[in-house]
TrEMBL record:
The keyword Endoplasmic reticulum applies. The keyword Metal-binding does not apply. One of its GO terms (molecular function) is transferase activity. It is found in: Endoplasmic reticulum membrane; Membrane. Pathway: Protein modification; protein glycosylation. It is a single-pass type I membrane protein. This is Dolichyl-diphosphooligosaccharide--protein glycosyltransferase subunit WBP1. Component of the oligosaccharyltransferase (OST) complex. Residues 301-445 form the OST48 middle domain. GO terms for biological process: protein N-linked glycosylation via asparagine. Residues 25-284 form the OST48 N-terminal domain. GO terms for cellular component: oligosaccharyltransferase complex. Subunit of the oligosaccharyl transferase (OST) complex that catalyzes the initial transfer of a defined glycan (Glc(3)Man(9)GlcNAc(2) in eukaryotes) from the lipid carrier dolichol-pyrophosphate to an asparagine residue within an Asn-X-Ser/Thr consensus motif in nascent polypeptide chains, the first step in protein N-glycosylation. N-glycosylation occurs cotranslationally and the complex associates with the Sec61 complex at the channel-forming translocon complex that mediates protein translocation across the endoplasmic reticulum (ER).
Amino acid sequence: MRSLLSLVVFLFAALVSAVSTTGNRLLVILDTPKDKEAYTTFFRDLSERGYDITYETPKSDDLKLFKYGERTYDHLVFLPTKIKGLGPNLTPNAIVDFINAGGNILLTMSATHKVPVTLVSVLDQLDVTIPAERNGKVVDHFTYDAVSAAETHDTLVLDAPRNVRPGLKDYFEIPGAFISVPHAIGHTLGSGPLLTPLLRAPPTAYSYNPKEQGDTVEPDELFAAGKQLALVSVFQARNSARVTVVGAAEMLQDKAFDTKVTRQGGKAIFPANKEFITNLAGWTFQELGVLRVNKIEHHLKGDNETNPELYRIKNDVTYSISVSEYAWNDWQPFHLPEGDHLQLEFSMLSPFHRISLKPIHVGEDETVYGTDFVLPDQHGIFNFMVNYKRPFLTNVEEKRTVSVRHMAHDEYPRSYVINGAWPGLTGISATIVGFLSFCIVWMYSQPVKSAAGAKKTQ
């Protein structure tokens, strides 16, 4: 009976386990507990997916991101607050340390609230810039919702993201759908390779602060306009921790999921906010785009001994790596996007070989990539290195170190099998044959005898 009960408990725990690969502890920072009522659908969806959600205000004394040097939460969600600073437990350094420790952050803003200076400092370190007043809203007089923003024009109705980064996997594409973006704070991005804009403002949009700017915005007062403004952006650190910046927290609210929007001259339709936010949160909390290396093997071609530590120059070597991709609580075979390559580097200080790996086996939850190649004519300490880093995918950096020795004295090939030695061998052979022929002729040739009885002459 006890074993049966243990089995039931185990199965229940497996069912409610979070789909995130980094954990299920989620901390939500908000002004008051009542604020979460506007996001009921969003948080209910996270709870059903197995997240253990804790709601705290910045003033809470029990709020700590670390305990005994370990993260107390796996994910953070920042909702708009009216507080200028987030207190001693949520300093910029503490939040950056949380990212460095592998934590993921979903940071939302709203033009109805000024962004706390703590989050402004964090965004600066990520090379994300917001208006100096910390609450300028994005306005567009052409792509606004004709019902809810008929006068203010600050609720944008935009096409869903499509082909965000050509040649890469796209987890956010929703063909033919629209996204409602109410009261957004636009931000600009630096040129860092770790930042990717998902949703940009249309060309006719601009950042506007009605409290500090008049009806006419002067060019020198303009923070940014058009495609310079990003509304939703993502950042993936080198340790694969993820930060998502959402310029409009209202995109996550129930009314954004349930209220129809209307473009000028168009029909009223439901926006695809729920699907977009689900994918966005899933990617941020590492439910999507997570790569795992299952196994790495290298060995002499045709040999059964795997992963030896010593090779010889010019050996024929086989290398293989097994990779899986995590998507919504399921490990799947990882398939490269069209035109992309998973490459192996065989390097000492610099690569001697850089080879594209080919899929050699596809299983239920893995794809095995491999190749055969000949080791260089150079002895020393070498690395089998796979360094695969792409936006939207966790980084793969796998290195195996081996020694490559030179040939032993009895391993060099005989001279007669080396084409370059044939002229020398021919000369030596000709010399030997000529010398022996001369010796034979000399030894077996008799001198000419003089005539018998010839008279002496004076």
